[in-house]
Structure formats: C-alpha cells, structure tokens
Amino acid sequence: MKKIILLIVLCMPLLARAQRIFVEPNPRGYEQPIINKLIEEKYKVVFKSDSADITIKCMTSAKKKYRAIGYLLAVSPKDGTILGESKRESARSNYYNGLEDPEYRMMRQLANKELKNLLYEISSDKKM
User: CA 63, 65, 71 angle in degrees (round to 5)?
Assistant: First the structure.
C-alpha cells in the first residue's frame, strides 16, 4: 500500500499541467518587468500567443508627462474572455528616481505588487 501511494505522489508532478503565460508585447517594450517577474517566480512563459493558456495585457489607463496609471488584464487567448484584472497602480517620475519613464516604473510596480495576486486569483477560479 505504501508503494502505491509513493508511486502516485511521485507521478503527480508529471500529470499536473503547468500554466503557459504569454505577455502581450507593448510598442515601447514595457512588458519586460512582467516577463522578468514571471521567470523569477518559475512560471512558464511562452512567446507565441496561440500556445498560451493565459495572455497578460499591460493596460495604461492614463498617461501624462510625469505620471502614469495602469493595470494588468488576464485574458483567455482561446475565446477572449477576461479572466481577471489587477488593482490599478500609479507611478510618478521625479528627480529622485532619475526622471525614469513613469509608464515603465508603473509596470515594474505592477510586476512586484499585483502580478502574483492576479495569477493566484486566476488559478483559484479556473483550476487549471
């Protein structure tokens, strides 16, 4: 009996299906902090949208010269349904951060604060 249970426990990772995540490219390349965080957290990142289970879109709702507001949107690539949405984050550019682009800074904040919560929300709802 112990051998059967041990065999089942050892084979479970082989049977589990990993989530393949595609991050939709941005014309200015602001998706890179999201990709870096996904790789750091050991998620499987793919670079073709047709082979992904989840597509993450980096949305910017307001962009001014020194301020940006945005959020992450998780979409199913098969049928286009919205799986989840992160909280909105804002970022400012000032002299203390070297006048860094506020949109890039906002995406980095979203990657550090909201990405993990969004993926947890999706996995608990969908049960992939």
Answer: 25
Q: Which of 102, 73, 100, 75 is nearest to 85 (CA)?
A: 73
Amino acid identity for residue 32 in this structure: Q
Give me the sign of the Cα torsion angle 114, 115, 117, 118: positive
* All domains of the chain in start order, with CATH: 16-126 (3.30.160.150)
Q: How many CB atoms lie within 10 A of CB 67?
A: 16
Burial classification of residue 74, based on how many CB atoms lie within 10 Å of its CB (0-12 exposed, 13-18 middle, 19 or more buried): buried
Q: What is the pLDDT of residues 89-119, one digit of tens each?
A: 888 878 777 777 888 889 999 999 999 999 8
Q: Which of 35, 107, 123, 37 has its CA nearest to residue 72? A: 107
Phi-psi region of 56 (alpha: psi -120 to 50; beta: other; left: phi over 0): beta
Check residue 35 and give its pLDDT: 93
CA distance 110 to 79: 25
In sequence order, what are the beta bridge partners of 68?
Answer: 63, 91
